[in-house]
Design a protein that fits this description.
The protein is an alpha/beta fold. About 50% of the residues lie in helices and about 15% in strands. It has helices at about 15-30, 40-45, 50-55, 60-80, 85-95, 110-115, 140-150, 165-175, 190-195, 205-215; strands at about 5, 15, 80, 100-105, 125, 160, 175-180, 200.
Length: about 220
C-alpha cells in the first residue's frame, strides 16, 4: 500500500531551470566568466550546490555561492513555474488520504516552495539543512530515512518520484519504490537501467498508479 509519496523539487514538481540559470549567469557576469547555457544547467541541476557551481562555472568558490544566493530568490519568484498538473495531482493524492512530502538536495527548500505557494500542499519539506539538521546529500538515504521515521511510515509504504539518477539511487538506498519522471535529461530507458520501479512522463500518471497499488492491498 502507498501511504507516503515523496517528490524531488527541481524538474519534478516545478521547472526551475531558467531561474537557476539566471542566478548563475548573474554570478558569471559579475565575475567576468562565460555565460551559462540552459543545456549545461540541465546537465547539473540535480547536483549538490558545490558540484553544481563547479559544473557551471568551472570551480567551486564559497563567495560565488553567496553571490548566487543573494540574487536567486528574486529569480525564483519571477521564473519558477509549477508544472500544470502539479497542484491538481497533489490535491488529488491528499484527497485519497496519501501523505505528500518534498525531499531535495537544496539546503532549505521550504523557502522556494513558499515563494511559489506550493508549501501548503505538502505534509513535510526536507532538505540538506532542514528540518532534521545537517544531512548528507542524495543519493545518501539519510534524508529519506529521517522523513519516513518522522512521518511514521515504512519503506514499503513509501514512493519517491524524481527526474534524475540521484533520486532513483536514493530510493533504492532507502528501500522505497522509485519512480522516474522524464522532465529532465534522463530518458525512460535510463530510468529502467537504473532500477526504477515505474517511469512516468507526467505527474498525472501517479493517480492511476496509486489507485491500482492501494486497490490491490
Amino acid at each position: 500500500m502507498v501511504r507516503l509519496m515523496v517528490f524531488d523539487h527541481d524538474m519534478t514538481i516545478v521547472d526551475s531551470s531558467y531561474a537557476i540559470m539566471a542566478g548563475f549567469n548573474y554570478v558569471a557576469e559579475h565575475e567576468g566568466l562565460p555565460p551559462v547555457s540552459h543545456e549545461l544547467t540541465m546537465k547539473h541541476i540535480a547536483d549538490p550546490i558545490p558540484a553544481f557551481c563547479e559544473g557551471l562555472l568551472g570551480e567551486y568558490r564559497p563567495e560565488w555561492v553567496r553571490l548566487y544566493r543573494e540574487r536567486i530568490a528574486g529569480f525564483e519568484r519571477e521564473l519558477i513555474r509549477p508544472y500544470p498538473d502539479t497542484i491538481p495531482v497533489m490535491n488529488a493524492l491528499r484527497n485519497m488520504g496519501i501523505k505528500t512530502a518534498v525531499l531535495s538536495n537544496r539546503e532549505r527548500p521550504s523557502s522556494v516552495l513558499k515563494n511559489t505557494g506550493l508549501d501548503v500542499l505538502f505534509d513535510a519539506i526536507v532538505g540538506a539543512l532542514e528540518p532534521f539538521g545537517k544531512m548528507p546529500y542524495k543519493p545518501a538515504p539519510d534524508m529519506m530515512n529521517a522523513l519516513m521515521s518522522h512521518m511514521d511510515v515504512k519503506p514499503d509504504e513509501t514512493v519517491y518520484i524524481g527526474d534524475s539518477d540521484l533520486d532513483i539511487m536514493t530510493a533504492i538506498g532507502a528501500h522505497v519504490r522509485g519512480i522516474g519522471i522524464t522532465k529532465g535529461i534522463f530518458t525512460r530507458d535510463d530510468f529502467v537501467a537504473l532500477g526504477a520501479w515505474r517511469v512516468i512522463d507526467t505527474l498525472s500518471e501517479l493517480i492511476a498508479i496509486t489507485e491500482n497499488e492501494n486497490a490491490a492491498d
